[in-house]
Amino acid sequence: MEKENIINALVKCAIICRKSGFNCLKEDNIDPLKSCIEINVLTAETCERIVEIMIVSNTVKLNKLIKQCERQLLLCMSECSKHDNEHCLISVEACKECAIACQNFIQNQTL
């Protein structure tokens, strides 16, 4: 069940982060959002790649990848929280939920 939960959280986060990056591009002044755009896209890519690996792998050795993903999520949360755009705030929440799912997955793998 934890694997299903983390996959769902990763997919949701990938969609929201990619959408947030594209919404940043629609803002009147994108210069202060360039880093946010890049980090959102990288976070979406990271989440998508982890899902692809999890779908084809049943190994417990996923923990290192999940921890790296969690670091990317925290980076995205930090960057997006600097902006008051609604899409950035939604991205922060999605990353937070996904980071929690990552932590839960890792904890259950080490039990």
Automatic annotation (TrEMBL):
It comes from the Bacteria. Pfam families: Csp. InterPro entries: Csp_YhjQ (IPR005560). Gene3D superfamilies: 1.20.1270.360. This is Ferredoxin.
